[in-house]
Design brief:
transmembrane, transmembrane helix, 6 helices, membrane, 162 residues, alpha+beta, single chain, 4-stranded antiparallel sheet
Length: 162
């Protein structure tokens, strides 16, 4: 069961390709079951522990980072909206933002231009994008305040694996 949860979390942390590796490891759980059925109980237990050691520790670390990134992203969104209230527009960058988890700074990108595809300054000042990655840079979580993809005024969440 733990391996299944780790596989699902691997999809969010690493993307489609690497999470496929975790799914293969889950299917290797049949090996310890067969060993147990044929009375190789110690070997079955050692095999189960090895499979768990391959999957679980890294995913626990990355899941902890994912939770912190979601919290940091929420704080950055709050910062952006406070800037809009105080200055009339979303910030161009987050240089003035004080990170709660400074070690995550390299995992987060804030921008106005990548999301908006416009040179119209009035259009740009009412939009922003926040992109973060957990395990690999190829797997992105995006939060956008934009009507480029949706005409609502809400912040949209998008996920791009690999």
């Amino acid at each position: 069961m733990i391996e299944i949860i780790a596989s699902k979390m691997a999809f969010q942390n690493f993307g489609e390709v690497t999470s496929g590796f975790y799914k293969i490891l889950i299917f290797t759980n049949i090996l310890p079951i067969l060993l147990f059925l044929f009375n190789f109980k110690k070997t079955a237990l050692i095999t189960l522990i090895l499979i768990g050691l391959i999957i679980v520790p890294e995913n626990l670390t990355l899941n902890n980072r994912l939770v912190k990134l979601k919290e940091e992203s929420s704080n950055i969104i709050l910062f952006a909206y406070q800037n809009k209230i105080n200055n009339g527009s979303f910030p161009k960058n987050i240089n003035e933002y004080k990170f709660k988890y400074p070690e995550l700074k390299e995992h987060i990108n804030y921008t106005q231009k990548i999301i908006n595809h416009s040179e119209d300054k009035e259009y740009i000042k009412d939009h922003f994008g926040l992109i973060y990655h957990v395990g690999t840079r190829n797997t992105s979580h995006m939060l956008m305040k934009s009507d480029y993809f949706d005409n609502s005024g809400y912040i949209q969440w998008y996920y791009y694996p690999d």
